[in-house]
Amino acid sequence: MTLQSIGLSTGGRDRAPEWEHYLKGDPALLNSELGDILDRDAVRLDIRTDDQVAYEALHHPDPMVREQSLYQAMDRRLPEAIDLIAESIATDENREVRWNALWALEKIGGPRALQIIERHVNDDDADVGEWAQLFSSELRTGLPAFDNRSFAWDSDRTFDETILLNIHCDVYVALDETGRNWGKISLAPQGLARSYGQAHACPNTDTRNQKLIISKTLSGLHEDGTPHTENFVFRGLTNHANAGRGSFYFESRGLRPIFLSGRADDDSLGHRNEMVAAKRSGEWTLDPRIQIRGESAIRYVRGRVHTWGYVNFDTMAGSSLEEVLFPGNSILGTLDTPTGPLANAFIVGTFKGKLVDWDGDDKVNVNSLDIYSTLDGDVDSDQDGVADIPGVQFCPRTNWMN
Ligand SMILES: [Ca+2]
Ligand SMILES: [Ca+2]
Predict the structure, then answer these.
(1) What is the annotated signal peptide range for this record (predicted)?
(2) Alpha-carbon gap, residue 363 to 93, rounded angstroms
(3) Mean pLDDT, the chain, whole residue set
């Protein structure tokens, strides 16, 4: 399986636009999402044949590649995509593949996808079952639904909640400087986590309406086995007009190194320290049965994320997915000079995260995940609430900040 070289492609351009008239309303509102437009025009950079994609979705030994293949089948709108995804949910041994496959069905939507999702509401894995219940409810009503498990919460941890975010990211890369040729890489949640890191939303009840730490942990980058950490402080506003739900729009700007190698902690080509920006908007849902510090806990969050990227495309063409999706092979971009002109990727994604039972005792874990961040987003390797180095939110091992 290889990524396409520049200029050899057929792709999204062959497809007709999904709507052909403007009776729906004002195109200034309906047709201003650059990601939606690029989705129609961009060539797909994964050049595996459809048969390869279908085979690897069920049989590749690496769960990340299986999941990536399911999302690729969806992105290509393969006629057999729903059957493949249904087979994966029924047979895959990796629970994250299974719940991210359920999410893919929700994205496809329609009565057949709904029917397959609802087969799994009473799954042996309670969290796969709860995701099925949640996606089914969202498709039917727009709102999530949860099961009635009890919960476990630790009052000694830095964060009241640690919610693993499943993020599905579409990366649109300008293939040259004409602005006419774009490529698309659709990253399923485990592919994104492998290359970029696993993101966690870490809300605290007293500050969550205006401030949120997103902490990213990347395994497999440091030779000594310690995780690579990057934290982001998001700030914004939250609307509570609907009881039990909060709709939000948050932004983050933080100083971090841009490694010109395109790889985290690879300083071989040097780095520049820049303010890196990201935006997230969406809605969280409280569960009044889970009370922490006198407040209902956030049981579930969903939304969209947007940021900029720098993809070193020359080093990627002709590479396999496994060669490209390795730890650290992606960095956020910035629009600020002098690095800004390097930004060549428009990145849009959707995310979903809920409380999960991570240790199999049938209680959902509210804040059990290891998060290497202080309340202010500084790296905190020993999780004691005190920063390794005050003001430093990105792994300091390359000494980038000095
Ligand atoms: Ca548990
Ligand atoms: Ca510490």
Answers:
(1) none
(2) 21
(3) 90
- Report the domain count for the chain: 2
Query: Do 204 and 175 share a domain, yes or no?
Result: yes
Gap from CA of 48 to ligand 2 centroid (Å) = 45
As a whole number, mean pLDDT of residues 178-190 equals: 94
Least Cα distance to 266 among 233, 231, 223, 217 occurs for 223
User: What's the CA-to-centroid distance between 357 and ligand 1, angstroms?
Assistant: 4
pLDDT at 296: 97
From 147, 166, 193, the end of a domain falls on 147
What is the tens place of the pLDDT at every residue in 336-347? Answer: 877 777 788 899
Is 191 among the domain residues? yes
Q: Identify whether 55 is part of a domain.
A: yes
Q: What pLDDT does 72 receive?
A: 97
pLDDT in tens, 81-103: 999 999 999 999 999 999 999 99
Q: Which residues contact 283 (CB under 8 A, 6 or more apart)?
A: 245, 246, 247, 248, 301, 302, 303
CA 394 to ligand 1 center in whole angstroms? 30
Instruction: Give me the residues near ligand 2 (ion), CB cutoff below 5 Å.
Output: 380, 382, 384, 386
User: Cis omega (within 30 of 0) on the bond before 17?
Assistant: no
C-beta separation of 45 from 3 below 8 A: yes
Written as six digits, the tokens of 30 are 């309906």
Q: Which of 24-28, 124-128, 378-382 has the lowest mean pLDDT?
A: 24-28
Ligand nearest to the CA of 380: 2
Using the CB atoms, write b or e for 95-109: b if 16+ within 10 Å. Answer: ebbbbbbbbbbbebe
Query: Which ligand ends up closest to the CA of 390?
Result: 2
Q: In terms of residue numbers, what domain contains 275?
A: 154-398
Nearest to 314 by CA among 269, 255, 257: 269
Q: What is the pLDDT of residue 30?
A: 86
Asked if 231 and 396 touch (Cβ cutoff 8 Å), the reply is: no
- Give residue 21's pLDDT: 63
How far apart are alpha carbons 110 and 105 in whole angstroms?
A: 9
**Residue 361 CA: which ligand is closest?**
1
